[in-house]
Amino acid sequence: MQRFTGLIGIVLILGIAFLFSNNKKRINLRLVASGLALQIIIAILILRVKPVASFFEFLGRGMQKLEGFAKQGADFVYGGIATIGNGNTAVNYATPGAFVFAFNVTSTIILVCVLVAVLYHIGIMQRVVSVIARAMNFVMRVSGAEALSNVASAFLGQVEAQVMIRPYLKGMTRSELLASMSGSLACIAGGILVVYANMGAQAGLDIGPKLIMASLMAAPGALVISKIVFPETVESETMATVKLEVKSPYTNVIDAVSHGAGDGFKIAMNVIAMLIGFIALIALVDWSLLKIGHIFSPNLDLSLDFIFGKAFYPFAWAMGIPTEDVQNAAKLLGQKLTINEFVAFKSMTSRAVPIITEKGLLIISIAICGFANFSSVGMQIGGIGALAPERRADLAKLGLKALLCGTLASYLSATIAGILA
């Protein structure tokens, strides 16, 4: 029955995209069908084909290993600081198993950013992205620029991915711009993905392979949704080509490590600042809502979770999430969209908003794995606008459409995975 519900979810998601389409007659059905097929193939390979599933489980374990390596660097810096260990007693931070959110998250993001910078400098990252983009360009018949951007978003940050297509930004059509923005909002950066996987591991949840699958499925999914919302009506400059023209900005490997560490630290500090700000704001809003609710009834305990649970319930149900998890899944969907995905993952992995079924965990992990939230739209407009100032007006006009597309793309990936699980 839940598989059937998932089919309703796909119809609902595509129907919403169709409803917001600015040119329904020009929707490319071949592109939509091939993109959906590509998502289904990725999900089948990872969920049903044992050798592929084993490979992604290996990658998931590798992500957990990265945290251990990162902690060795953090131990040197923070060793001597007391933290609460497993026995509720004070222990040295360098003690195996000790965990302080800010320290562990910071070190993991820095290490992953260093690795990405090194791979980028020696050309491996560009080659991997280029090969996958060529395949997507061949299957879906999208332009080279938007294929490159969407595939790069599965590995890099939402603005960093656009650097790979910087030479093309000036001449990209508005449909291509929306597709690129949507892909960056639907996917997740490698460093953040590793952090989420390790947050799950700390809570005993094996979500690493699910998150890798989510980011890979998001690339074709974002193209499907964005091309329904804003179909291409003009000829793209890169329709028949996938040519990567990005050279390393680093002098050598040491320079790449230095810049990667610096960039990672900036990202980590931004994550910490956002969490402190948003969680504090949530506490303020929840307190205000509680007081307002009690004005009408002493039993009316209003909160953001209460509101999210009602507003996003239809989406959670339509995606095929088991009945016992629908209410909490709806809360997580609301937190991810209106606050950010970090708060949603923290709520899920800390069991503040628990998901108890394996199927529910699979679907919701994929649905909230992406940068699609209101603050990210501002980051995109500012970041991509700095790369192509002449397109800032177009970026601003497309911002909310990109948020819609990125959100629906994540929901579409989650629904398909839930049907096949």
Automatic annotation (TrEMBL):
It is a multi-pass membrane protein. The keyword Electron transport does not apply. GO terms for molecular function: nucleoside transmembrane transporter activity; symporter activity. Residues 211-418 form the Concentrative nucleoside transporter C-terminal domain. Residues 8-80 form the Concentrative nucleoside transporter N-terminal domain. It is found in: Cell membrane. Pfam families: Gate, Nucleos_tra2_C, Nucleos_tra2_N. Keywords: Cell membrane, Membrane, Transmembrane, Transmembrane helix. One of its GO terms (cellular component) is plasma membrane. The chain crosses the membrane at residues 6-22, 29-49, 98-123, 177-199, 267-290, 361-388, 400-420. Residues 103-201 form the Nucleoside transporter/FeoB GTPase Gate domain. PANTHER family: SODIUM/NUCLEOSIDE COTRANSPORTER, SOLUTE CARRIER FAMILY 28 MEMBER 3. Belongs to the concentrative nucleoside transporter (CNT) (TC 2.A.41) family. This is NupC/NupG family nucleoside CNT transporter.
